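Bit of a strange request maybe. I'm writing a small parser for structure token strings and I need a real example to test against, not something I typed by hand. Could someone generate the tokens for this chain?
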Amino acid sequence: MNDWTLADIPGQHGRTAVVTGANSGIGYVTARELARRGARVVLACRDETRGRAAEELLRTEVPDADVRLAPLDLADLASVRAFADGLPEERLDLLVNNAGVMALPRRRTVDGFEMQFGTNHLGHFALTGLLLPRLRAAGDGARVVTVSSGMHLLGTVDPRDVQMDGGYRRWIAYARSKSANLLFVHELARRLAAYGSPLVAAAAHPGYAATNLQTAAARLEDRPWRERVARAANRLVAQSAEAGALPTLRAATGPDVRQDDFFGPRLQLWRGAPVRSVRAPWTRDDRASAGLWAVSERLTGVTYEWPPRV
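Reply from user aminoacidic:
Good idea to test on real output. This should exercise your parser:
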């Protein structure tokens, strides 16, 4: 079987997509390639300056792109609600939950959540729930794709301590947030399938891809030596952001994608063409996913409508 590449992305004309964290890295490549295939793309970005620069670059690379920038800070539930309320599109064919933070020192979101769990999981949980009526309105072919990580294998979510108040370790917190992404996809897919909805929930991970994610924590802590080490590792070991975006793009556009699919690089969760990826058994646990769902609804105040209208 031939490797899946950018050439395999089907035409996206007539489709509307929202990509979070679209100003750089995997999010930018995802948005660019969707626009190149004809989709109308909303670049959902926290930093307006960086988002505007990304929009200008994308228009340079894809002159006929139908794109626009919209502010979204996933670490602020008021911003998430404002984004959803301000989205003019009545239907949405694709939501790519891509934005995230990695291995930060302990920080809190605007709403008081541990930053990695709050941004990577709760922000996207709330956003998806608020946009669900538009996604349902799109009918066949609509998808929610959430970007996780191979690092999810390092830890699952403890429902008794989702904020890690019992002891914070940055990499474990990151792993837990990425397991939360997969538990969210599992539970969403399970509920959609139970009610016969055509909306598909899938996930992807980029392997080790060279993006700004690896250097953000070092910059935040003002540790230039760590930033230099991360940049060197990106140059020497990582695959490109273009290659890292392939699993997301396959999950978003591939005709063979099924409920609760998880795509990643072929070679050791690291690099290579996108294929269905291994995942930790706890990310398919119905009891754990339902428990996390209940906690997430309580913390965000966003309640999904069940059964969904199809």
